[in-house]
Amino acid sequence: MDAVKTGLNQPPTQHPRLLDWVKEVAELTTPDRVVWCDGSDEEWDRLTSELVAFGTLTKLNEEKRPDSFLARTDPTDVARVEERTFICSHDKADAGPTNNWMDPEQMRGIMTDLYRGCMKGRTMYIIPFCMGPIEAENPMFGVEITDSAYVVASMHIMTRMGSKVLEAMGDDAQFVPALHSVGAPLEPGQTDVPWPSNETKYITHFPEDREIWSFGSGYGGNSLLGKKCYSLRIGSAMGRDNGWLAEHMLILRLTSPEGKVYHITGAFPSACGKTNLAMLEPTIPGWKVETLGDDIAWLRYGEDGRLWAMNPEYGLFGVAPGTDYKTNPNAMRTLEKGHSLYTNVALTDDGDIWWEGMGEAPDHLIDWHGNDWTPNSKGPSSHPNSRFCTPIKQCPVLAEQYDDPRGVPIDAILFGGRRASTIPLVTQARDWVHGVYMGATLSSETTAAATGKVGVVRRDPMAMLPFIGYNAGDYFNHWISVGKAADDAQKLPSVFYVNWFRRGEDGRFLWPGFGENARVLKWVVERLEGRGEAVESPIGFVPTPGAIDISGLDTDPEDLAASVRVDVEEWKEEIPLVEEWFAKFGDKLPAMLWAELDALKQRLGMND
Ligand SMILES: Nc1nc2c(ncn2[C@@H]2O[C@H](COP(=O)(O)OP(=O)(O)OP(=O)(O)O)[C@@H](O)[C@H]2O)c(=O)[nH]1
Ligand SMILES: O=C([O-])CC(=O)C(=O)O
Ligand SMILES: [Mn+2]
């Protein structure tokens, strides 16, 4: 109890609202200890050592992976739980047809009962954090309370956090309260498990109160509350109210051989290529890509009337399988520098990590369940949604504008999904509203990033289906109104729709992807400069057969032609699906999007 008293009676802040909230949570959850996190290296060392001693983390080979650790989760706690994620607006209509909803008072009742005594036997950590630079004009503060040391260690990497944030908050700054518990109280004498969690899970957002309550899961997407919960779900509601956009987007800086600089954002659903594109190593000579963000972007108008994007995060929480020196060398180099957490990947006999796609499989591994594994074993060694968590500052191609609170002015926005058919390699929208239509009708096959069936095609508007914190119809309207707010439509980013995942009849990918995607970026730049060759197809501008630079590329020209083909019959099959999708939103769907759909039907020759 003394430690509780120390945490509560000698707090490192005088912020009244924060202190009231901390006290209230401590009284409700009854932890054994209360710790204010300072964000120091000593704190990281202490927490990781404790987690190693406890068996939650395994220390990796210091020479190969300095200061790096492996976590194995409970096998039932490996991904975001979309069916347990709620938007609790006062009015159900404000959550819209794509979100789970419950009345906020009812939800607070249910969760308060779950939280009562839930930190018994555990330490309650208080993590002051800031999404985006602390030096911003309006720093976006949050405070996460959690009973998971793994969460604290991960927040060290993923956010700017600790004493410097608390200091910047003074005693009156606004902040987003974010409460997290793994939901596993310990009775006296009860032995703990390495990965405590609860079968009952709630990932809950109160958009009007700008508040987050999460219970039962320790997995990153459910527990690192600055990420999806704050920066996207609460962030999108803030953006709606204040004229900006919170998006599931990478941000990259592209320099052409002539030295011209472009900034591009890309919205692809989870596990559909954002991290890879953000760190891409171009295969075509003279082109350079620098990283600004790999998952989240906040877009606002700058004084110059252009849309600027900044990355609120401080680390990368990337999909491990498929990452290696061939596909994403810059991610591998980032990880070489150490100071990283790995979750649910395999452990090699010499204390290194391994996952599917990282060269040839070693003869023996410990798999993500903690069992012996050989190449003959059934099932993969690493969970398909296993992750690396690493400081973005270690990225060897990080752009220096990374820490600029204004971000960078955006030239092009890419929407993209994972579709085996129909969607060409790249299509340019005619204008902003057509671009919004492309985003609003984006579709993709589900991946292991969320629990549930993998490989099912679903609409994933702007790659934000699981992350829009309000009615998606209102969100489409907001996108249109952001376009209208431009003082000059010429200053708006040009919108493109890409698909790296189209397959041939034999199932192989038609486009080599990864570093070769620079060839598509080159065409995008040529279009921005008004010179890339394109044909106007029913669905937008697509490259002419020779327009994509394939010099030095060892790809069957027929595959390339198939990858950019617009198949009118396939597109006709898409139309009823879009109609069904739009109908969900009733009169919330902007009339301009119905008009876009009608015009597309006309162009496809579907006049009824
Ligand atoms: N075929 C192909 N696969 C790709 C390409 N880019 C990425 N991938 C694979 O897709 C998977 C996910 O890629 P990421 O870049 O981690 O996806 P993400 O969008 O950042 O995922 P989240 O972190 O879940 O939001 C990995 O297994 C990659 O190897 C590509 O251009 N072509
Ligand atoms: O949030 C997570 O768990 C990881 C992620 O980036 C996503 O799923 O988009
Ligand atoms: Mn993501």
UniProtKB/TrEMBL annotation:
Domain Phosphoenolpyruvate carboxykinase GTP-utilising N-terminal positions: 20-240
Q: Quick one: which residues bind substrate?
A: R80, Y219, G220, G221, S270, N385, S386, R387
Q: Which GO terms describe its biological process?
A: cellular response to glucose stimulus; gluconeogenesis; glycerol biosynthetic process from pyruvate; oxaloacetate metabolic process; propionate catabolic process; response to lipid; response to starvation
Pathway connected to this protein:
Carbohydrate biosynthesis; gluconeogenesis
Q: InterPro entries given for it? A: PEP_carboxykin_GTP_CS, PEP_carboxykinase_C, PEP_carboxykinase_GTP, PEP_carboxykinase_GTP_C, PEP_carboxykinase_GTP_N, PEP_carboxykinase_N
Q: Which residues bind Mn(2+)?
A: K228, H248, D295
Cite the binding residues for GTP. A271, C272, G273, K274, T275, N276, R387, R418, F514, G515, E516, N517
Q: Which keywords annotate this record?
A: Cytoplasm, Decarboxylase, Gluconeogenesis, GTP-binding, Lyase, Manganese, Metal-binding, Nucleotide-binding
Q: Which domain of life is it from?
A: Bacteria
What is a GO molecular function of this protein?
manganese ion binding
Q: Which E.C. number(s) belong to this protein?
A: 4.1.1.32
Chief localisation class: cytoplasm
Q: Which reaction does it catalyse?
A: oxaloacetate + GTP = phosphoenolpyruvate + GDP + CO2
Top-tier EC class = lyase
Report the residue ranges that make up the Phosphoenolpyruvate carboxykinase C-terminal P-loop domain in this protein.
Answer: 244-603
- One of the record's GO cellular component terms: cytosol
What positions does UniProt annotate as the active site of this protein?
C272
What cofactor is this protein dependent on?
Answer: Mn(2+)
Q: Where in the cell is it found?
A: Cytoplasm
Q: How does this polypeptide assemble, per the annotation?
A: Monomer.
Q: What is the recorded function of this protein according to its Swiss-Prot or TrEMBL entry?
A: Catalyzes the conversion of oxaloacetate (OAA) to phosphoenolpyruvate (PEP), the rate-limiting step in the metabolic pathway that produces glucose from lactate and other precursors derived from the citric acid cycle.
Q: Which family, according to the similarity comment? A: Belongs to the phosphoenolpyruvate carboxykinase [GTP] family.
Q: What is this protein called?
A: Phosphoenolpyruvate carboxykinase [GTP]
